[in-house]
Amino acid sequence: MKKILKDLLLIIIITSIFKNVYSHEFWIDPIKYHLKNDNQISAKLLIGENFKGSQLPYSKKEYEISNLYSGNKKIKIKGRLGDLPALNKIKGFTGLNVLQVISAMNYVDYEGLLKFDIFSRKKGYPSLAKEHQNNNYPLNFVESYKRYAKSIVSIDNYEGSDVDTGMELELIFLDNPLLELTKNKRILLEYKNDILIDHQIAIMSIRDDKVKVDYLKTNEQGYIEYNFKRNTRYLIDSVVIIKGSNKKKDKYAKWHSLWASYTLKTP
Prior knowledge:
- The protein has helices at about 1-20, 115-120, 130-135; strands at about 25-30, 35, 40-50, 50-55, 65-70, 75, 85-90, 95-105, 105-110, 140-155, 170-175, 185-190, 195, 200-205, 210-215, 225, 235-245, 255-265.
- By secondary structure, it is mainly β.
- The strands form three sheets. Strands 2, 5, 6, 8, 9, 10, 14, 15, 17 and 18 form a ten-stranded mixed sheet that branches. Strands 1, 3, 4 and 7 form a four-stranded antiparallel sheet that branches.
């Protein structure tokens, strides 16, 4: 009975956090981004802003998919309800390892357009609130959303490449982001396995407790180029907002947002 109550409490806590996020980022935060003589990867799942957030426990209900990729190898990440960190003691491979997490569908209730307008403008959609009004949508409405997160962890060396995991919205490094840091790195943005052009990507960096955000737009080939600095943590994100299903099963959501995030730390 105690275990059932504990599980229910965890589910309530997780659901409550997800329902009140608005424009907060969701990202994977490895305990160690670079491992030596150790292949056990552990990582937190965080939701918040400016690299500060609430840690989320593991829940099968909230995370539809969680995998580890390394080259052509793929491992399904298993966890127990309530695990902290959520991704715990995963056996990785020498070189680059890519963690992937896809959230379940979640929903947020808006009362008025102000918060939605702030959120959509920040994510590169300056006229969405006006479109909402032009569509004669109600001021109190629901938005559905899903999260697509990746992170790179190295073991013993930095050799390897990123993996296209086939997520609906995905950031993909076309160049190894941990080697030859004097050169710009290309980051591709794909939506439904097709490139997204002229779309916003935000790159947040933190070093010596100083946070910086750069906003870039993808080119005609669907990627941006960026120069990563040494010994710096990065959170890269991009959001796509489309019309919601407006169906009962999705709480008649008027809008649907897809969030892609990618974390890494340069050597």
